[in-house]
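We now fix the convention by which a protein and its fold are recorded. The integers have meaning only within a learned vocabulary of local backbone shapes. The record below shows the convention in full.
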Amino acid sequence: MAKRTLVLDASVIIKWFTQEEKREQAIDLREKHINGDIEIVVPDLLLYEVSNALRFNPNFKEEDIKKAIQSLFDIDINIVVPVQETLQEAVDIAYSKNITIYDAFYIALAQTIGFDFITADEKLYEKTKDISGIFLL
């Protein structure tokens, strides 16, 4: 059986570092990736989103944020840079679903490469759940 590949957004990955609802499910995905059971793919945008979210979390100091980001590189998450086709698809999705380009890019990336997308953002999920391959953590 082929390894399942997932696109995760920052709302899922931020749970790896903070005490939030559904943290256990998010960490389970990380552990499955580390064990080679699944592959996680993210756009490079995720690195900025996670860093920024932790920057404004009063529980995190500069060194904590640097360690969190290093851990993402250490577990070999597949970090993808944007290409024109995916960005154009993101614009279409953003307008059709009334969401940000940032959020739409994760969905466009998943669709472009044919993988499922998982978010912990309930509002985003509600606006996009009719798109095939989108799941709520």
User: Anything to note?
Assistant: The first strand starts at residue 4 and ends at 8. The chain has a mean pLDDT of 96.
